[in-house]
Amino acid sequence: MTNLELLIEEIQQLKDPSLGITLKESSGLLGHEFNDQVLDLKIAIKNRKKDESTLKLDIARLVKIKYQIPGLRIEFFDSKFKLDNEEKITYIGVISGKGGVGKSSVSANLALAISRLGFKVGIIDTDVYGSSIPSIFKLPIEPLDTTEDDEIIPALYGDIQVISPEFFMPKNQPLMWRGPMLGKLITHFFKSVCWDPETKYIIMDLPPGTGDIQLDVQTFVPESPMIIVTTPHPNASHVALKAGLGAMEIGHPILGVVENMSYYYNDCRQEKDYIFGQGGGHMVADALKTSVLIEIPINQPLNPESFLYDLEDMNGKLYLALAKKILEKL
């Protein structure tokens, strides 16, 4: 065995500090090249921010001191390795074509319904220009705490963990950012948040349309399933279809369509009034070869000061049924 082979074997025996296993066990050494007395390494580790400098120092000791190789370049990547006891988080996107169709209300009430089923849930408000998730949960707009490793600690509504741009800006100040700045913020939301280790599902409230943030989300959680929200009105459903097609084009499966504000139940006449027309949700579902998951009526919560539906509410029962249907599909 050559000195280079011995060195590579020793590097593979170094441990990924966050995983507690060797780079060999985690397939962390992605590649290596040795030219002109310079060793190039590509290494994947679980927590780059926390462990990169420590591992780099350990490798440098081996390469430069023990094996007397003067040149060393290391490129680090994020490890996708999962330990057997490590819970995998399922990300679920909620998208729409237009604003004003109740996408954020659906996201929040869906997260609440999933938590009622006994699962630990998070919600990421990626609708940067129209953030409303903290308002729906009536959370105070104030800076969030961080861990010793500079990870963001989410705000809490009961057991629901919430991350939103609202917590990073002065209250009521508009956010006027271009794409690169948005990208940095979204990166923090996906890479630098200290989620509860028992978190099972994270709902992503995405901005309406097909823009930069949708592409960023695809980078961090590729192939994450999406739910499309529309109203029955053709203006909303036509654009919702575009959002669905865009999501499919970049690899996201569609779980189905939620038709929000489907009708108003008239107690006096004991019949449904279709004030926004009919058929928009089914049009989108048919075009995308999926199904309408549920039709949510216009209905004020029993608590008029809340945006969230209790289980005693008709809509609360519908959201619980929606949550069960979605989890069955995953």
From TrEMBL:
Q: Which Pfam families match?
A: ParA (PF10609)
- Coiled coil where? none
Recorded hits in CDD domains, A to Z, give: Mrp_NBP35
InterPro entries in the record: Mrp/NBP35_ATP-bd, NUBPL-like, P-loop_NTPase, YlxH/NBP35
* Tree of life domain: Bacteria
Q: Which UniProt keywords apply?
A: ATP-binding, Hydrolase, Iron, Iron-sulfur, Metal-binding, Nucleotide-binding
A single GO molecular-function term is:
ATP binding
The biological processes this protein is annotated with in GO are: iron-sulfur cluster assembly
Annotated ATP binding lies at G97, K98, G99, G100, V101, G102, K103, S104
HAMAP family named among the record's database cross-references: Mrp_NBP35
Function description: Binds and transfers iron-sulfur (Fe-S) clusters to target apoproteins. Can hydrolyze ATP.
- Name the protein family: Belongs to the Mrp/NBP35 ATP-binding proteins family.
Q: State how it assembles.
A: Homodimer.
Q: What protein does this entry describe?
A: Iron-sulfur cluster carrier protein
Look up and give the organism this protein is from.
Answer: Acholeplasma oculi
